[in-house]
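Let us work through a complete example step by step.
Step 1: write down the sequence.
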Amino acid sequence: MENKIELQDVWKIYRMGEFDVPALAGIDFSVKAREFVAITGPSGCGKSTMLNMIGCLDMPTSGKVLLEGKDISDFKSDELARVRGKKIGFIFQTFNLYPTLTALENIRLPMRIHEFPEPEVEDTSKKLLDMVGLSERANHFPSQLSGGQQQRVAVARALSTGPSILLADEPTGNLDTKSGGEVMDVFKQLNSQGITTVMITHDPKIAGSAGRIVKMLDGKIVGGT
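Step 2: predict the structure and record it as tokens.
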């Protein structure tokens, strides 16, 4: 099975006054298509920096980041935007839903930004809301939803443009155990349908939902494969 994601000797160095501080120090890492990988480690170890690289939100100081075999440093800005918008779905700890839009409107938004045909927008958004078990909450605003429900709407929104890669940064960090478990059930369902998934988490139980666990420390991978 081919590598969906590959990092080759990736360094990310930040200049802090007179000092160079490596956030990533020679990372070699790959994810095969349809894998579900959890990245764990203490705060400041480089997990989010690595996820930002994979998500085309940041570029390495040196080394290569390959998505489906293509070096992202070769992409022009419009190509990067297209990759972020259509190939990759992002899910964050804080949900990032628009408070003035309903659940259904939040899901529709990325498709409208990327100018999907309106019949497809309507059909896909309703199917996704049903998939995450929230059809009856279609017209509710985020403030009217529980944390777990908001995160499930965020998952549906991330899937709206049909990405093949799902990136999640502490997706259960603001949720209670029950809600976190429900969200992870959705992740496992999506992965079983073929979506390549990379997730950051501090929670060993949540990490155990993934097919593979990678441990980071001080900008390096120190455990897992």
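Step 3: interpret the result. The longest strand covers residues 3-16.
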